[in-house]
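Human: I'm a chemist; would you kindly supply sequence and structure tokens for a protein?

Assistant:
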Amino acid sequence: MTNDTNIAMGWEEWLGLPDLGLPTIRAKVDTGARTSALHAFDIETFGPATKPKVRFAIHPIPGRDDLVIPCSATVVDRREVTSSNGETEMRYVIETMLDAGDGHQWPIEVTLTDRGGMASRMLLGRQGLREDVIVQPTDKFLRPVRSYDVYSAKRIKSVTPNRALRVAVLSREPNSYSTKRLVLEGEERGHTVEVIDTTRCYMAINALAPEIHYDGKRLPRYDVVIPRIGASITSYGTAVLRQFETLGTYCVNGSDGITASRDKLHAHQVLAGHKIGMPTTAFAASPKDTGNLIGLVGTAPLIVKLLESTQGKGVVLAETKKAAESVIDAFRGLKANFLVQDFVKEASGVDIRCFVVAGKVVASMKRTSAGDDFRSNLHRGGTAEAVKLTAEERRTAVKSAKAFNLALAGVDLLRSNDGPKILEVNSSPGFEGIENASKKNLAGQLYDHIEQQVRPAPLKSKRKKAT
């Protein structure tokens, strides 16, 4: 007999582990077992040695391997545990909140082990029971009965907490402002962020077990990759990124989008295909076509631009047709690939950088060139200040980022007499200038998007087999 202050439990109960994103789990309550255990596979530690974390996955519903819930928690211990069949193993121990229903919650320690062959995904031992819990071994389901419906596509995101993630930033510049901001912001949110030098990665490419190695060791599994691939290593950097994509890692920007945006000719073709406004652009391979090339664009002044130029380098303003011909001949003599563009005079050395995250312009700044330089890049001495966009400019920036399927993009545009003209879509936009100008935490907005994306897959309904 129990009184009103006691919590009655049977030998089997529906419980919840909300901190792990497990609102419903069917557990065996066993006072004969000292230690509690939770089914886990793909167990892997990460984070600093002084405060290690563990990441693991669980199938919360027996027999439903199509639903995988990824979890992470801080490691509180590692101890030797002997199971009921006499086998001993070393297990990681975590602390998490137990939800017994009707508002009854308390912290418990639980060990992680593969219980895939067990009927229950969790074992609640006597150490996990509060003093006011009375276990009635002949009964079951004395606590509120729950349903696996919480793992449906409509409800799973609302019950899944933001968990600690293992994040890789692909960057050759660990001390740059952008890289340091991504590391700091991630760590402040409890994630583990590692900077990986893209050029020091090497790959094992095979159908069964594709791998990425770094400094003599195979890289661990990452929840997300944030690529900061420099223009000089685009080809190799995107190859490394494709390997992460093959492994199923969520990549903020995909290899195809980065490749297309880096090649200015390809990028303009993509923009044209999506009916997005840009300065009139022309390209030709033969020196015999120089005159026709200039004629397609219009009259001088003209812009001659290397296809893989960055930060304003390799971009030349030709004031006259003769000057344009001279620049084109010089670039051809260097066997360089370039395009010719109309010069938008009314922009007056001013362009606008739109910072797009997950299909939304989250910040914008106006960049003004220094002195007589027509290029407004901050790396060339330009100045920046926050600017308010028109509705058309906002739509154009979002559409441009989507054209390359980029979740993070810096879209540069000019204000012309006939609407916004896209100059470039940057797949690795810098954070410093626009965070300073806008006074916004843009790295935080990127992590908001990442935390929404790296979620467990919703439960899929089983199809009945045809008889």
